[in-house]
């Protein structure tokens, strides 16, 4: 008889998710600073999507493999997922330290591939961790806590250039360091990123224990021979063939969401600089100020994400998961489209708050819908495959947008944001194709006592 996992305290769930904070600081850093870095190093605006291919391609290749490998890993000392947290954090931190020293566009692009590889190695096990540690009644809360750390980490990243670094005596618009075309303040953003991902992952590793496999003898038989890449790819292929129905139904939701969202990271700061600060290129007088304000707008984006992380457990008692997700995706789509209404910099901050509400749902609700339909023995590999539902649309986006940017989108980054809004509304409509079991009435069943790991 399958053992029921006990309810964990709020602080146990907090500790097991804390490493997500460092991970998401660095994802946030990428979102608002990589396109300006590429522009400083001479990239053409229409070619930015190709330079962003690193994230989705490394995710597509790495996450299913890491998921399958971690499913078959167990160490009494290190556990199942935690070794991968550490490996990914170390790899990412190396790339973070080197990134601001990029002398050429090729060097920056190569380091972005290494950075994204490290972040993806860390990301996938954190998703599977929720399924490993929490019972069905607490998974909505678990993914919501992860959404909170997404918001918190990315808020910190977005506040760094305009507020935190200046408060420390480092101007947001600083002179470039000798031999570099990248402003000096950007170096500090990346150095702090290396520190925070290592520190937060170590916190989770030190405070959280993992459950051993339920049937240790069967686990040893399945894992005999260690890491066999042939067997790993076979496991991924079998999992694809036996994909749960709910996972298949989520495809169009994820496709439209993630075809659109890369446009935000690629073009949002550039749209703010062009329309809010009259700075259409990196040589314009207001470009650095405009891109710094674009980073600040992500503060509102992440405030929206944090707000939703508190609301979703309560809403899950009253509405279906698919309905909740459709509502927030629609709000996010309206946010992007609203940027057409004004050239005021404030409209971009308002738009990003609305988009942040959608973002909080994007980071939690699809995983809630999926996790209860996935067998525990394949939680890692299915979470990795589910990431393919994210990265395949991004790859399609990054290959195709360059062909239509100057023609269909008029060479205007704001029009790219509007296209993203339309995609989110289509994703919302696709939610009604998903049929999931009714939400548990115990979705927010927690207690606030105790602080240690379990």
Question: How are the secondary structure elements laid out?
Answer:
Blueprint: H1 10-17, H2 19-40, H3 48-51, H4 54-71, H5 82-98, H6 105-133, H7 136-167, H8 184-207, H9 216-222, H10 229-241, H11 245-249, H12 251-260, H13 262-276, H14 287-315, H15 321-337, H16 345-362, H17 365-371, H18 379-404, H19 413-430
Helix pairs in contact: 1-8, 2-6, 2-7, 2-8, 2-13, 2-14, 4-6, 4-10, 4-18, 5-6, 5-8, 6-18, 7-8, 7-14, 7-17, 12-18, 12-19, 13-14, 13-19, 14-16, 15-16, 15-17, 15-19
Helicity range: over 70%
Alpha-beta classification: mainly alpha
The CATH architecture assignment turns out to be: Up-down Bundle
Low-confidence spans:
438-454
CATH homology-level superfamily = MFS general substrate transporter like domains
Percent of residues in β-strands: under 5%
Number of strands: 0
* CA(first)-CA(last) distance: 22 Å
Question: Into how many domains do the coordinates divide?
Answer: 1
Average of the residue pLDDT scores: 83
**Major beta sheet summary:** none
Choose one word for the global shape.
globular
CATH class: Mainly Alpha
Number of helices: 19
CATH fold-type name: Growth Hormone, Chain: A
Task: Provide the succession of SSEs.
Answer: HHHHHHHHHHHHHHHHHHH
Using the CA coordinates, give the radius of gyration: 21 Å
